[in-house]
């Protein structure tokens, strides 16, 4: 797995060469940490040398994980590579057959903690031909809640910049945020690093036609892949049937013969009689082993997460005049009741208010409180129903 980052880099180089790419854009956080190791830099440099030999230019900006100030050692880079500096947005024209066909604008982070809106600094040089492309490591407001907000900007800032295309870095999940005027694209990372970076990872191969229209195509480059699948237990009574369902779900994204291995998490959910099986450690372990053994080569089980609930007639239980009935009605009435939720929130204050805890987790919002109450309901039902 450690080698996978390097194999995706090789796949990227091969793609650029095979497609006769004019240039490659790297939108920051090429290195994970400020202590860029020599080996990583060296591997990147040989990849760049390969591209130099193939006539592919490379443009690089630095982000919060690899800001310029952290560079502890500078290698000599081949002449096809351009690193953008931190002082101002710089424009580099790209020529094809003696004609400027594109202008790449970029700026790097001087330090990790970059809070200013860098997108606002971009504007096209109207005196030149070709398309205008902004290369930036930044956080577009509202596009992901998984990443901290560095160089924050809004979609309107990107529109106002009058670039034709934005090649953005920072958010790891690839996405096209806007189709045109300008096209705004996060390429994401080339290799998922853990189960929460599931799904295909790679780059966008972008064609530009003579009218300046961009046609991006996502190309997966990852050497192995994390996947998450959901399997409902409702209506299933035989563990062997559930195993079949889970096995098929694990295989659903992996075609036989695919050289790329998949590591799959199965999330079991819903109410059903097999909930009991998940509650028994021994039965669950045996079931898990059976599932693992049933998988095709190239498909590995990461884990089976149990989100199942007991098979009960919830409405009948709620109507009962006993402790469980009262409890379930209380849960129902608390959900979406802002006043009640705020009361819970202040009761939790001593927990989330502690400096050590608040570094790890932030106080839950209304939605978070709702889901806390919901899981308390499920837990309470599990505990009380068994009695
Ligand atoms: Mn970043």
Gist?
The protein has 387 residues and is of the alpha/beta class. The protein has eleven helices and 16 strands.
Descriptive account of the structure:
There is one protein chain. The protein has 387 residues and is α/β, with parallel strands linked by helices. The chain has three domains: 4-220, Purple Acid Phosphatase, chain A, domain 2; 224-311, no CATH class; 316-387, no CATH class. 33% of the residues lie in helices and 25% in strands. The strands form five sheets. A six-stranded mixed sheet has the order 4-5-6-9-11-10, with no helix packed on it. A hairpin with a 5-residue loop joins strand 12 and strand 13 (214-220). Helix 1 (4-18) packs parallel to helix 2 (38-53) and helix 4 packs across helix 6. The site of manganese (II) ion (MN) has 7 residues, from loops.
List keywords for this structure.
3 domains, 25% strand, binds manganese (II) ion, alpha/beta, 387 residues, 3-stranded parallel beta sheet, Purple Acid Phosphatase, chain A, domain 2
